[in-house]
Amino acid sequence: MKKNTSQSELEIKARQWLIERGVTLEDIAELVYYLQSKYHDNLTMEECIFNVDRVLSKREVQHSILTGIQLDVLAEQGKLNEPLQTTVARDESLYGIDEVIALSIVNVYGSIGFTNYGYVDKVKPGILERLNDKTTGEVHTFLDDIVGAIAAAASSRLAHGQADDRLIDL
């Protein structure tokens, strides 16, 4: 599998911000493995990482990462105006903009990602459990949904790639 080697400044920054917020490619790949291992015989973490890497190469995904993380950071610093500050800082259940941003990522590889996203958003496995922990003082209102969406999109890409990987990113 060929690794993504030509990254734009936007992609580099999006990847950097994920790491700065405590999320690695491997964390996301573990979610992909969690979602897809029962459907793919002999699925490896290398394949999961490859698919996450390809999802992260998409400009729409990079924009979503940067937008969501910026809003989380501003909320963490108390720099949003009310009532948005309280809403984002608490990750209020009826605030759905975080999911809307996540759905823009899920849609990159087709509708199959919606079911994967809904499942991990409900169950919160792996890194999502930590990101959703409200006791840390960190705000991840957007990031937990973005990470789940990246995993769901990578899972979709993996499913589609079973047919012909060469055609998946055209």
TrEMBL record:
SUPFAM superfamilies: YutG-like. Residues 27-160 form the YutG/PgpA domain. InterPro entries: PgpA-like_sf, Put_PGPase, YutG/PgpA. Gene3D superfamilies: PgpA-like. Signal peptide: none annotated. This is Phosphatidylglycerophosphatase A. It comes from Aciduricibacillus chroicocephali.
